[in-house]
Amino acid sequence: MRTDSRLSRVLHALLHMEHADHPLTSEAIAEMLCTNPVVVRRLLAGLRESGYVQSEKGHGGGWALSVALDDITLLDVYRSAGEPALFSDLVSEDDPQCLVEQAVNAHLSATVREAEEALLKKFANVTLGDLSREIRKKGRRMHAPR
Known about the structure:
The protein has 146 residues and is mainly α.
């Protein structure tokens, strides 16, 4: 099963936007994410609708942040990205009449719901500003003289 990387990709793009001294084109972001510019435009469309990014057309145009990273949580980005699946589907529907399958699926479904609730609660408490500061801190350690 292919995993959904929309959340990771859009977070990657947003964090790069913070460090850019000009708007980033869909093509430039696509190159960073190893994808197609159309995919980038789709990824960022929900964030534009939510007011987190803006886009300018024409020469010198591109995508830019509309708000400070401290004002955007992981939960905000997750919702703006269309709430992609957080976990793969663990249940099977091979024989819905099977009592064993019913019991396994009920337990797995309940456990996944609990895990999703915990993860989304954590997402609500982490801002993109937190991630940006962590990146800068690691960057300073990597570039510090030995």
